[in-house]
Amino acid sequence: MYSDVAVNVVASPKDGNFIVTGDEDGKVVVWDTSLQERCEAAEHHGRMITALDVSSLYVASGSSDGTVRVWKMQEPGCPPLAAGPSMRQGSIPVSSVKFSPAGNHIASACAQWGCNVNIWHRRTRDQIASIGIGGLCTHSLAWSSDGQRLFAGCSDGSISCLDTLTRKPFSKVVKPRPGDDSISSLHVSNGDRFLVSFSAPGRTVDIWDIHDTPPSGPMRSYSRCVSASISPDDFYLANSGNDTKITIRRLSEVVEAPYFFYRLAPSPSYSEPFTYISPAAHRAWKSGELEQAEHILSREIEEKRDQGFASYARANRALVRIRRGDSNGALDDAGKTVLPAIARVAKAMAFISSGKQREAIDAFGSVCHGGAKDFVECVKSVALFELQFRDATNCETQLTELVALADDSCPWVKTRNLLLLAERYIRRGECNEGLRLLTEVPDLNPFLRVPEAKILPLLFGWDIYDLGCMVQQLICRALFVSGRTREVNDFLHVNENCLDEENEAGRADLGWLCEKLGDEAICHGNYDDAITWYSVSLGLYPESRVRDCGSEFAEKCLPVSESEGTAIAKESALMASYPPGSARLLVKRSKARAFKEFWRDALEDADQAIDMDKSCPWGYERRYAALRALQRHQEATETLGQMVTKVEEAADPRIRQFRSRYVAPAEIIQKIDKQIGFIREISPLVLIDVRTGSLCDADERVRIFKLDPLFHELVSSMSMQLDSNRIVKVVTRYFRYVMFSHTWEGQEPTFQNVSEKPVYEFNPHPLRCKLRCFCETVRNDPEGYLWAWSDTCCIDKTIETIYRKSIRSMYSWYEGSALTIVLLSREPAPPTLKSNRWMTRAWTLQELLAPKSIRLYDKDWKLYREDTTPNHKKSPDIKQELADAIGVAQDTIVDFSPKSLSIRAKLRLASTREATEKADIAYALIGIFSSDLTPEYRDPGDALGLLLEEIVHRQRDARAVLDWIGESSQFNSCLPAQISAYRDPPYMSPRIPEIEMEARVAELRAMLPHADVISFFNNLSTLGSIGFARRRLSLPCITFSVSVDTVGRDEASSASNQIIVYQAAAAVPGQLKLQTSCTHGEVVLVYPWIRDLLAQTDNLPELDDYTRALQLFIHLEQPFRALLLVKQSYDTYKRVATDEEILIPRRKIISLKDIGMKVLEIL
Length: 1163
Prior knowledge:
- The structure is a single chain.
- The chain is of the alpha+beta class.
- The protein is 39% helix and 19% strand.
- The chain is built from 40 helices and 41 strands.
- It has a 6-stranded mixed sheet with strand order 27-26-29-28-30-31, sandwiched between helices. A 5-stranded mixed barrel has the order 33-36-38-39-41.
- Helix 4 (327-335) packs antiparallel against helix 5 and helix 14 packs antiparallel against helix 15 (527-540).
- The protein is elongated, with a radius of gyration of 53 Å.
- The two termini are 93 Å apart.
- 41% of the residues are buried.
């Protein structure tokens, strides 16, 4: 094992499974001795670690800054050492720290003249005692195995002893020695019979008899030692010398055998002990590890190492076998040993376990030694009463017969007997009788330290102290089962001082009971009571592992309560999903405090629970709930993620099954990101953050959103169920934006301007003030808008791809806006919408129609007409004024879509609009016509032609696009050069009265051959539809031949304008006098409105084809607006542009020979 920092001190538990080191940097490190590597590391203590000790799962460290800290080691897989509050010894470096044998107290000392030895409470960190040693420096400390004596090695070579019960000043055990011979380390044997000291300055190891103090001198002494250590079993002494050799000595060869055994006697004056027992066997026997104790005793008997104590070992094994239920083996051992009194007691108790009462009484009577006889009589009373009690309960005998037998002159015997009876009454549901018996229990406090108290745990598994705790438990249990829970609380408060921490099992049981009371209270909604019970439970047993509901004490409490249908049983079923010990209690108390909305207290409990058990998810769950309530949403989100991870990684499958109940933050964020992605697709590329006045692209907006508390609130609000609707609502609301509609007035702020400086930092130029006022209006809106868009600065026109995308997307951006703010142009009074310049611009048409909500402001940024309606499209007066201004219905203003109006109606709306750039006339109509047109400014004259070409190609509507008067476009002669050509509506033939239709059909039947009519009709129906691609128009039409009759010059016209007279064929009688450009070549007059013509008869399915064909001819006889085409080369044509419409008057068709049909290619 290697440490990158110099190690100053080392400590290890008795089992040697790990070692703990303290280094010069003030860090405590735990090393796994089997893996030869570091397994845990604590945070820095402070300065250099100068002292260490280990007890169970705790490490105590002392530092050169005078502080002592306790570290709790976690279970495998848990985070590193958890630190508790520090205990300050002073400002002098700590020379020694030692845990008491029970681990509940810590002794500390300083190597400084005048410093006291302090004793601390491990859990509370309170100072219990501070005792001086005559002003001497203390270098080392050691506890006796029973914790009743504390030894201190001093700078003058003396060793002092403190009685921890009386806490009187230290008494000298070893007198001072001359010279610099300070005691560097101390070790008390397991049997408390001898003490080993090591003096680093004097380089000596001494072994002292501390059974009879003060000793006259050491039993054995070794010099020239550099260091020394004792094995955990006291059998070996290891020391090193200047010769770099390590010497290991068997202490049993230098120290007499009795020093290695516990001497247990019923009274100090009794010269013959009740028994001798080795520390290893005593430790296993007392802790209830009976199989291990029997194994140790059997080994000692077989090894015959200490023949003088073999009879005691055999008698001890007999008692161990009795407690294990092996009566025959116990009798065998007891029969082979008759000398010590314990052998006769063992034989008697073996007879009792076999049900042989008479033989047991005789065996007890054979003990005749004074002090032992009185003690054995008490043991006899307990053993015989338990036998009678067992027989009585097996035979269902009345317990009242045993009550009289329970009385005894020995207080602890009487207490034991009454406990057995009271417990039986309580099990039978007679709690009041059980409580009555418990009130007769005598006070045992004066007997807690009597010598026989050390023997009782070996014989019965309990001692006098345990009896007191059993009384406490039984009273609480009786009150609990009978439903008198409030009295339990009162009783615990009154008797709190009686619950000594040394009896952890007793405290654990009472802590468990209070926890169950808290569970019951929380199930019934009594949250104040629940908080009280959990707090009491924490005070009883704050750190160790609280027993689960399968413990013996729980089994005694639960059967009755479950049968009564309390809520505790239901809560017990969920116990496995909670963390153990204090962490579980803190989680539950946090929950109860949450019900009371004591959120800060609930958070504090959750944090403590996590500190105690970082692997369990439920502390994180309670922390998440508290943080949510405290609106600390970012922390709540992080905690939620940690909780889900802990659930997924839990070793317990019962905890892992809870994973389906939770939604991980990553899943929620993924869903949010999906909605954000959708919003990004339909939102402008760049927006202004109205809070800062800066430009933000989509990525920056997302970044700002994820830093916003709203984002963390959204994520943290869905721990149990993913709410897609709420995600859509919140994300959509956050990213909504306001569009700006206005007329350009000169050098408006550009993208580059705002990229360099936020809007709010612009100088007071009028055009820049306009943008700033827009942003301020959006920012101050009560709806809380965050984002705004203006065409002046939100499009980077230097990047062609961005510019194209923006032009094509602008309609959808306005359509998707939460609001469009319209700034009307500066107009002379009285202001009207129809006369306002804003109503004449090409771009503002879509800015009016596309948004669902608009708000109009005048030049001074005051609401138009002072109308405070949030959406002026819903203001009756403004809505009507808007509709009148552009000549549409109010419904079109309120809810426009590209399908709301016909093609010609939309072209008419556009015909009144103007644009600075010629191409913008077309590009401003991309959204209104749902066009796929790609903006190209290299040839702006083609933009309108491309748009109209696409409309014709997609809609197949010839009349909407081709019915106009004016100048032809260079793009295609059938398209107008200006959008204003659509200002006049197309010509529509008058409706034919039904009577007239029927009469004319009859005339045509007699005039036109049936076959010719049907053929013409079929050919027309299959002629095909209009097509437009690559500037070429494929136009299906009915043709009429014409000839130039007269060509004359109009003297008032220019050279390019002449009056041309065309003579039509018979089907179109008369002359057409037109003013147009000079034309030479073959001329044809066409009727291109075939789709409309066929539609006249398509809705009459009841007619036969012949009648429908005749009706078609009748519609063809009606006046119509024709196109005049002149033939070019290769069967192509161009339209002859005219300043007046070519209106063919009404006429009658008498023959079909002059009427043709053809698909013409028009350039």
